[in-house]
Amino acid sequence: MSDTTPELFHDDVFGHAYGLLKAHSRPTTGKADRAEAPAEAVHLDIGDAGAVMADSIQGELGLHYVALVGSEESAAALRSRGLEAHVGQLHGREADTELLHALVGDRRVHSISMIDNLSQSANPTGVLASVRSLMVEHQCELVLSVPNVTHWNVGFKLAFGLWDYTHEGLLDDSHFTFFSRSNLLKTLTVSGLRTFDAADVLREYSDQGFPEQHPALARGTELNAFLRQLRRQSGPDDTVNQFVWMCTASEPNPGTLTVATTEPERPFLSVVMRTQGTRIASMREAFLSLAGQDDTDFEVVVVGHRLGQTELKDVERAIEDNPAWLRDRVRLLKVDHGNRVIPLNLGFAASTGKYIAILDDDDVPFANWVSTFASLARDRPGAIARAVAVRQDIVSVSVLGRPGVRTEGPPERMFPGTFDFLEHLSYNSTPPVSVAFPRGPFHDLKIRFDETLETTEDWDYLMRVAAITGVASSPLVTSIYHWWKTGQSSRTDHSQEAWDKNHAAILRKLDETTMLLPYGVAKDVREWLSDRRSQQQRDLERDLRLMQHEQDTGQLQQERDRMLKLQRVTEILDSTSWRAAGVLRLPARLLRRGRSIKASTYLGATSGELDRVIHDLETSRSWTLTSVLRRRS
Questions:
Q1: Which of 344, 393, 430, 549 is the most exposed place for a label (fewest CB within 10 A)?
Q2: Of the candidate ranges 319-323, 617-621, 628-632, the one whose mean pLDDT is the lowest
Q3: 426 backbone dihedrals φ, ψ, rounded to 5°
Q4: Could you tell me if 456 and 371 lie in one domain?
């Protein structure tokens, strides 16, 4: 390359576009020779942005580079590099087709590129339709690049009222049309193109990553962390800076690029029922309870998991035996792989309701089950609706040779009437049958049940959704949550070790998640902290009393030891043998080198001082010489 030739970088739109061209390039008749007539195989670059790739296209791919640019100035710059350039613009009209065919002439078009200029057209489908006509005639492909307006930088700024045009980049001031993945796909489909390969350019921070200290953009803020985790799970393109796609011609699919602003007709509730076809008696009871609902604005999605032929027939018969109005609202889906979480994701994905509830085939909803959820949803649209389930123990029995169930004892109201977010951070006290989820988190934010979990998947999903939507609670009892004392259940299918492992995994996920605290939780946190401080104060006072007691006890023991030592001194000095040896101590007293020793002298002595006195007395001449007297006594 010459000093004036732009450098082709690999990790940018040009490097990615060239990589696609190279990967899908067909053999040509030979290398292009700029000094002679143009080679047969032509690469057409619409717009001059792709000129960065020109030398590689000609030198490595053996194609003759031809550019269609918007100004004579741009054309002159390309010609100065020895490249073929023509002036003209595509406007999405019939004249575009004539322009392209005239430019190519009788040469064979091998490939076409449009780098970052489709956004500059007010009629992108018309422009692409003209390009497609050339692609069909020459059986060639198009590499297309457009900026991604759904990069998280753009979205977060827009959420706070910022929309900043720049001279170039994602919000180039020359752009008429902005593309997301979905509307770029629609544009291609309407224009008669389809993509078959991609090499998108990823940028964690785009040119729109300013102002750097905006709380939504600065990577160290809690707001940024919360928004990033939501954006990341809701779609794949949060860090895509530019879509770089390889396209081929297909049949045009006339349609509109706009979307309807009105929601389709939906039932209020979709009821997802998992079944393995082994609890037909309880499944029939669940259907009977659904048939008796006060509010019948619901559909039922039955998901059969690993059903054998016998189980499938039993499930189909149980569905068929429902009243016609209910039977017509039931759909049966089947899945033959995965763990017990797979049917939930399949059932939720197939649900059309505004809310989605889980009704396993062994639980029983009361007549107010749907209506209570509906009432909560009206009061707090978009929040999780939670009522109360009572627990009842059941056992497996045989009834006339067929499997059945029998209750063991009365229902117990052991789950709280309100949802406590803080308590749910440690353990789950909300059975699946007692909640209905808004469809938005699953269908719009793409929050899925975690298929790596074997158990407690409902608690994990509940907490991830509750942290975003909040929970509307009712103290009304609306269902029975059956607890199997005998027979197969999730508790028997998985070891306690598996339950503990999944519990720990969920706690770990909660610890790693940035959360919104629901309304009212701040007060709960203050009360909890106040209670904890009060308990800590009580514990401290108790410990201080214990320490004082131990200290007092220790002092008493020390004084007792001192008195015993003082008693020993007294015993020695008052002993017969010590008095008998007084004559031995007389010369020392006469010479005033000694003094009369009395027990009263040591009344205030410390324990250590008394130890030394006892040692001196017991090793003195008076005491050792009279030891024979003590042995005789």
A1: 549
A2: 628-632
A3: -105, -40
A4: yes
* Residue 148: partners with Cβ closer than 8 Å, 6 or more residues away: 170, 179, 180, 181, 200, 237, 240, 241, 242, 243
Print burial letters for 49-80: b (CB count within 10 Å at least 16), e (below 16): bbbbbbbbbbeebbbbbbbbbbeeebbebbee
Overall pTM surpassing 0.85 (yes/no) = no
Nearest CA among 482, 246, 471 for reference residue 362: 482
pLDDT tens per residue across span 211-250: 999 999 999 999 999 999 999 999 889 999 999 999 999 9
Cβ neighbours for 21, distance < 8 A, ≥ 6 positions apart: 43, 53, 57, 61, 111, 113, 143
Please, are residues 174 and 89 in contact by the beta-carbon 8 Å criterion?
no
CATH number, domain at 80?
Answer: 3.40.50.150
| Pair 345, 418: CB distance under 8 Å | no
Token readout for 541 is 């006072």
- pLDDT on residue 588: 64
Tens digits of residue pLDDT in 587-626: 666 655 556 677 778 888 888 888 998 888 888 888 888 8
Provide the pLDDT for residue 28.
58
CA atoms of 161 and 330, how far apart (whole Å): 45
Stronger pLDDT, 99 or 260, i.e. the higher one: 99
Q: What is the pLDDT of residues 503-556, one digit of tens each?
A: 999 999 888 888 888 878 888 888 888 888 888 888 888 878 888 887 788 888
Peptide bond into 6 cis (omega under 30): no
Distance CA 226, CA 76 (A): 50
Find how far residue 544's CA is from the centre of its chain.
46
Whole-number Å distance between alpha carbons of 447 and 457: 13
Judgement on whether residues 53 and 110 belong to the same structural domain of the protein: yes
Q: 571: which 2 tokens?
A: 């015993």
State which H helix or E strand residue 154 sits in.
Answer: helix 152-159
Residue carrying the six token digits 């011609």: 249
Q: Are 192 and 132 in contact (CB under 8 A)?
A: yes
Number of domains in the chain: 3
Q: Indicate if 451 and 321 belong to the same structural domain.
A: yes
Same domain, 300 and 403: yes
Q: Does any domain span residue 351?
A: yes
DSSP secondary structure string for all residues of 467-500: HHH-EEEEEEEEEEEEEESSS--HHHHS-HHHHH
- Helix spans in 256-364 (H): 280-291, 309-320, 324-327, 342-350
- Domain holding 350, by residue range, is 269-516
- % pLDDT > 90, the chain: 62
Q: What element of type H or E holds 17?
A: helix 13-23
- Which residues make beta-bridge pairs with 303? 274, 333
CA distance 626 to 582: 11
pLDDT value for 38: 42
| pLDDT tens-digit readout, 80-95 | 999 999 999 998 888 8
First-to-last CA distance in the chain?
A: 121
Judge if 277 and 344 occupy the same domain. yes
